[in-house]
Amino acid sequence: MSRIPVMNLFLGCLVLLAWAPKILLGDLVERRAGGTAIEGDIRQIDQSGVQIRDANAVLHIVPWDRIRDVKMMYPDPRLNELLPIADELWRARTRLERGDRALAEPIFARMFAKTIGNNHETALMVAEGLLRVRLARGAHAAAVIPMLEVIRLQRAGIATDSFSTLPELFEEVNQGELLCVQLAPFFVRNNDLERLVKALDSYESLGDDYVERLAQIYKLAAEATLYNDGSTLESAQSRSQNFIEEAINIRWQTDAGGSKRSLRAVDELEERVDDLPSWARMWLLYALGMQKTQWSDLGGRDRGLVQLATVASVQSDQFAYLAGMALQSLADVLEEDGQLTAAASLRRELESQMPRHPIQQEIPPLQRAVIESEEPQEEPQ
């Protein structure tokens, strides 16, 4: 064999080696908000986002709301469908972050129907976005399923930087047990609440026992509100109650004003009020106030009015839903006591300060046979 062909072969190999990195780095993910573009080899494209390995063999997982464009040496036909979704998710997230919630909610709601039950950052961003916009407009019943999904995903180790500039919604009350501080287990009785009960019947926690338990707690609270009857709570009590269960049980106990055991439980909770964080204090004061204003004991009843007034007077968007409910309950109690002028004054204040609060369109209590005979309904909107 002559030396020239061997030399040509050697030089050809050098050329191929020189071009190999460029071949491997033939794909590009352009990120939004000033994020540096990532050049490399795209390994996977799906509903969660794009996985791309860069020149240093680092694997990046970029969620769709952070992607402006994707360019590939061999384009994936799914990009024709997924890139418009990326644009919508980006618009929904940025609208929420700048306070334009009304335009963000329809996008989040539509995407949530597609991502619920998935385990990735895009699913978390969508669930939290929908949770935030519904809390902001006072649609608390419609916020429960998104809340459960956020908790499930966070407990599964999934995280997102989205909404990091907005107030934190969750607090860890026990190791690994999260609660949404703006979503107290007390509701306005409306059509959304009926839909929530049906939606919780079919909700899948995907093996997370805590989320399953939390879903059951919120369902019991929703049913108690719908029927104005907390009798089912007693049979469902667990031996080891957490804070949210204690608050619900105090709110709906029917004998707390006459049973020594129940009175002792109320006293024990009252002793803890001042040591609680602000959100838990509001939850407990509302529960205690609603319980005590049903007592025949005038001293206890008056303390209940003070507790409701404390909740109603809080000037914070975080507690606006609970404050409106407390104000309405105060007016109802005063009206029952014959203090019509004071009751009318409180109702005017509610209408003036919270004209869109859902408590003003509350429906009458249902009979249990009504909702149980209905066809299954969609997740509340």
**Count of distinct strands:** 7
Uncertain spans: 14-23, 370-376
Q: What's the N-to-C terminus distance?
A: 78 Å
Please, what is the average pLDDT? 86
What count of domains describes the coordinates? 3
Structural class by sheet pairing and helices: alpha+beta
Secondary structure: elements and pairs:
Blueprint (H helix, E strand, L loop, with lengths): L2 H22 L2 E5 L6 E9 L2 E6 L4 E5 L3 E5 L7 H19 L3 H15 L5 H16 L3 H16 L14 E5 L2 E4 L10 H12 L6 H19 L3 H6 L6 H10 L7 H13 L5 H15 L5 H15 L7 H17 L3 H14 L14 H5 L9
Antiparallel strand pairs: 1-2, 1-5, 2-3, 3-4, 6-7
Helix pairs in contact: 2-3, 2-4, 3-4, 4-5, 5-6, 5-7, 6-7, 9-11, 11-12, 12-13, 13-14
Characterization of the model:
The chain has 381 residues and is an alpha+beta fold. It has three domains: 26-78, SH3 type barrels; 99-252, no CATH class; 269-277 and 286-360. The chain has 15 helices and seven strands. The strands form two sheets. Strands 4-3-2-1-5 form a five-stranded antiparallel beta sheet. Strands 6-7 form a two-stranded antiparallel sheet. Strand 3 and strand 4 (59-63) form a beta hairpin. Helix 2 packs across helix 3 (101-115), helix 2 packs parallel to helix 4 and helix 5 (140-155) runs antiparallel to helix 7 (209-227). The protein starts with a helix and ends in a 9-residue tail after the last helix. Mean pLDDT is 86; it is low at 14-23 and 370-376.
